[in-house]
Amino acid sequence: MSGPFSIPEPKRRPLRVFAFDPSRGRMLGNQMQLDVRYRPLDPGPVDKSGAYDQIAVVDYDASRKKYYAPVNLDDPYILIPNGLAPSESDPRFHQQMLYAVASDTIEQFEQALGRRIHWRRAPRSLDAPKGWQPQDILTLTLYPHAMCQANAFYSPDAHGILFGYFQAAQMNVGRNVPGQTIFTCLSHDIIVHEMTHAIVDGLRSHFMEQTNPDVAAFHEAFADLAALFRHFSHREVLLDAIQRTGGRLYSPALKGDELADRAKSVGAGDSDAGPNPLIGLASQFGDAMRKRGGLRSAIGKPLTMKQLTETTECHARGSVLVAAVFQAFFTVYLKRAARHFRVYRAAGGSAQEDLPAPLADALCDEATRTATDFFRMCVRSLDYLPPVDVRFGDFLRAVITSEVDYDLADEEGIREAWMDAFRERGILPDDAPFFSEEGLQWPQLDGTVQVHGLPFGGPLGLSYLERQRTSAALQSFIDGPGNRALLGLDPTLPYRIPSFHPLYRTDIDGSVRWDLLVEVVQDAPADRPDLPLRGGTTLIVSTHSLGSGGLQEAKFLRYAISKPLDGPNGQRRAQRQAAFLRQEGRDRNADNLRINFALVHGDE
Amino acid sequence: MASKTSSAKVRAKPAGGKTKAKAKAKVGSAASAKAGTNTVHTAPTTAPRAGQQPAANDGGAAPVAWSVEEGEVGIRVRMYRVGFGDFFLVSFRDEGGSQVHVIIDCGVFKGTSQTGDIGSIAAAVADMVKETDKQVALIIMTHRHADHIAGFARCKDDFAGLTVGGVWMPIWESEFDPTAAKFQADLTRTAVALQNHFTQACAQAAAPPEELNTARKYMENATGLDAAAAAAAGAGGAGAGGANAVALTLLKKGLKVAPEYYQGGDPPKLPKALADIGVTAQILGPPPVADLDLMKLMDLKKGVGQYLTDASLSGDDERPPFPGSWEVEAYSAEPAYSPEAIREWVQPRLWKKVTLDQARAAESLMQSTLQSSQSVAALIAAKTLNSFLNNQSLVVLFNYKGKKLLFVGDAQAGNWEHWLFQSDKPDQVGTGALSSGAQQILSSVDFYKVGHHGSSNATPKVVAEALMANSHIPACMCSTQKGVYGTEDPDDPTKGTEVPRDPLLAELSSHGAFVRSDQIAIEPAGAKAVPAAVPQNLPPDRPGRRFRPGEIWVDCFM
Predict the structure, then answer these.
(1) How many domains does chain A contain in total?
(2) Is the reported ipTM for this assembly greater than 0.85?
């Protein structure tokens, strides 16, 4: 293919998808084009790349034991119109949309994390034989019509995500035709939500183990947040929402609703106004299951954790977290939007009038930028969470710490907005000394604990040999005198290193800074039911300290974010865990504790 | 109703019953009446043959053939061996020899192995009719599973012939509580749909996986619908509604007494005969309907319905999502998919190009994995529904002359939790400390009906510990049949064949206070004899407590 007239490989592949789901039909902005990264594809679409983050769409229906015809996205007749046109009746469009939204979600995460992701790896001990294990997911397989069930879930056993289809209820079906087939794989939100579960499960081996009531709730909330923030990248819908809410995006119902109410009272028909599509998840799915409105709504329920001390129902708990993050988001957005309003009013504009197009445009930019910022904050914080037993308070501490690392000055008061929103909802960390920026940050080590022998790697990560060297260097560091105590690890028990990732980021002064994120995990022995199931520490090794430079050859431990097995902290966790397991009627068995998304999702 | 005892006590007994010798009782002597045991002892009798009823029946006098020994207060708990199910007859006897009878559940279920029903329930009901002389003060239905109510349906004429003083049922059966009524209707509908789902799945599979069959049986237990019989009778046949519906109708409408529906904390209205003799009762469960959260019954639809589409609930065929022309063969002679699509399922894992042969070999692994991912979901739905029903169990604590008897039906964690940890401080719920009230009740219980046929999660550990606190060992009876569910864990169809023998039962056994119904051999009249399923002797006598085997039962005297 090379030669003077060869065409370079394209960077992007444009594909058409539903922006929400088919129930909105061709209504404003329901169709959009995603420009996903270009990868060579087989029919399916099936990634041929051989990368760790590859996906394959396999349209096998296990309820009916049939395959449906796969789409060949390289067919010229599909390439020319930028992909198949949205259609409910053509399974190939379903496959195309699933592939496009899944690829887009992967890219969003990779951009936020600053590195390539990979799918779930089975836990291994330090001396496990090298090579792949049957439970490792190398290609995440997406099954667009896996079953006739009102459910869609990520299943590590199936090495992928199963999307169901079902017939809508006969009565009271919202926007759907009675008895119509609903496809969960055509809901943009559901795809992003499930992809998020799969991505997060790949990041951390033990994140999905429900050792406290927050774990499942955290995953649900996180996946909802990912799906919600994605909506703010959809310009056409965003512009419309901004116009109709007068810039107040958080308004649960669009302006048209007031009109509709008035219209109804005088006997006029329904208007096309609906609840704000940006803040409802998966409205078609929810409608079809005879519940009004979307799956879960970001705002509306002003619940606090206090009201939820007794419920372990993960969506109720998760909705508090979603609402808190969204409050922080709106605070920042309004602050940024206010500038534009001031300019507008100073020039004689009136708040009573509809927004003029340039102002709406500017507000739209701010909303998109803020949503992207918040999505990235959420994703970046994953690296700053302890490896096991995560609670909502840990999430707040991780966000604050990673933000301090990322933007020390914080001139816009973003961290303040986070703290306010969490404080208002009673989401408080267990062990932070104060509810302030300094108190919430994970304690920083002073830079004197050096880790020797770590290779730097390159912008594309570590080579095989460098990974071996890193692993050896980390082990000799952890085994060094006194270091286990320093890291909050039990000196008598074996440990594992499920993952480490180098991060290459540009510091505020323009220099490259390097961090190594390391997960260290210890399992309680079978004969120690007095300990929590697992303990572990996230290590962050850096070249630069905050505010100052670094020395060549001096890589030092900056954070040791720990959930110890023993000590007072471990005891408290053990008690809490035992009480939770009893309440849930579960065994103390790590395999049974993994979230079974088949049971978490479905009809909400 | 209490009935006056005639001076001649006769006990119907078959000739050759090997238990005869053990049934001897001491000749009454005033000297043996000790503090708190104001007993009247009756003369031991060797009974004439069964079938002859020599006792004078005209004046409402009932035959009383059991005696009260030293240290006992006059309670007999008769656990019938019916197979996998509960059927208890509790008799309270006063100084004058009058007896008052309470029936707690009457059911049996065949289970997956089809061996749960050992065919003795009709004989057991006949014995109950004789023992009570058709005078029953109270019938308690703990919950609506077939293994607790099937006998009411099967022997409904016998029950309809009884004079019953009262019927107690859990609040969930009430037609007057809208929440409960709606919930129960939903639940029944869902159970029927799940049963159909599993029946279909079993029929489709060449060799249905064991779990599917188990789950189908659960739903049969919940609905009382016998799939095979219903199919034979044809749609709309006599079996419509199922045996459970027949039993419920009998209990609600067929006994000439309006049932009382209770939830935990309700003050029960004792039938006169029980109150007269001095029995008191306390309702500990189920949790109040308003307290759905604790009971984890929050939303049946969420727990169960999500796996069922509307079509499967209404019985319509599920339509294919696309016309048949879209269906292809993945790896036929002209494969629709490239071998790369199935790379994930090639074993051992490889990182180079997949060949068509490798893809074909790997295809079935993917297909079976996807199929099993689904049946697990439906199974867990069945399990959820099953525990919903178990948690509806009416939990009753009787007190007679200082002896406390705890009957828990099949209560599981959600039901127990409500009264165990009841506290003003919501935080207490998680700490694992029992409320002082629960502690007090449990540590003073003299008789405990082991929940849910001895399954792994029916008796929480804290309860077991409290029951045996201060080396106070209650008498425990467990009505069960070994090997009925392949897993021996009736709670969890997904658990495989491990045998989770509860440490509680082992502990109780070691203290010599635990009896299971299948440890005795039975010779029911008109049915085949069944040998003991577990080799185990009855615990030795202790002051104030005796176990005695019978034709088709074990008695516990206190």
Answers:
(1) 3
(2) no
